[in-house]
Amino acid sequence: MSLAEDENEPYNRWQGFRITQLSICISLFLTFSVATLGFSISLLVQKFEITNCLAKASFLFSVICGLMSVSCGSVACLTRLWDFRKTAAVVRHRADETKKADVERWREEYRRLGRTTWCLFYWQLGLFGAEVVGLILSLGITCWNRLT
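User: That's the sequence. What structure does it adopt?
Assistant: Structure tokens below.
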């Protein structure tokens, strides 16, 4: 192993950790969002009375944000898989001179997919936060008289 490869080893190791952590975070917040959405739906099934107009609007906002957060998380998982697929193709064919144009196209595609994944992840987080805030606001307005 040459000195340059030796110097890149820690970077490659941490790059692997970063890749794993992003996938775990996407899955974690996807789970949180689905669980919060499930809780909201269980309130509807149990005929939980939301009488205040602002509470109803907050609840609807929460459910819509939850659905959008789940959608963003699901699409982020898919773009992540497509990114890995393109990256594997580049690694497999980068030494093949006959596939040089394909390799460059694949590199551009996996860079675009990586940016898309991060963008979707940020939207997933923001929408999950809005989902939680909307649900807390709705429940707070509805249950305030029980708390005081």
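Residues 19 and 98 are 30 Å apart (CA to CA).
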